[in-house]
Amino acid sequence: EEGDQALALVCHALEESEDLRKALCSYAFSFEEKEKALDALFPALADVPHVLPFLKIVARNHRFGDFPAIASSFHAMLNADLGVKEGIAYSAFPLSEEEKAALEEAFSRKLGAKVELMVVTDPHLIGGVKVALEGKVYDGTVKNRLSELRARLKNGGNAQ
Description:
- The chain is an alpha+beta fold.
- It is built from seven helices and four strands.
- The protein has helices at about 1-15, 20-25, 30-40, 50-60, 65-80, 95-110, 140-155, and strands spanning about 85-90, 115-120, 130-135, 135-140.
- Strands 2-1-3-4 form a four-stranded mixed β-sheet.
- The chain is elongated, with a radius of gyration of 22 Å.
């Protein structure tokens, strides 16, 4: 998790500073200059194993333009290695951190593994939450409940 936070910090810095992004992607600066810049910009990362050397490899290969995708892939590979399941929670309204944590905890208990959810706001939903996880969709939305009720009523009130 410490490595994830470190990579998120770097992504944020790159988003905030176009000059930093350009400098780290540029062939005009030597590898040594970029290495010194990374050391100066992110001194706290020296205590996080492997992160600064990883950043320097990215710089050496002029790949900071792709850094968000690299960080995302790294995160996915790390989660796969740790057995963490990733999914998407769709909600009509933004979820608070507490609501997201409660949802992750409920699915973690259900699946017997740590679950991380990315929350996507979908204004087409009336209410409730739909979760896509491990190729399955768990639909607890009002829209889905209304569809199920409509189907039951069409079927004479019997469950299908």
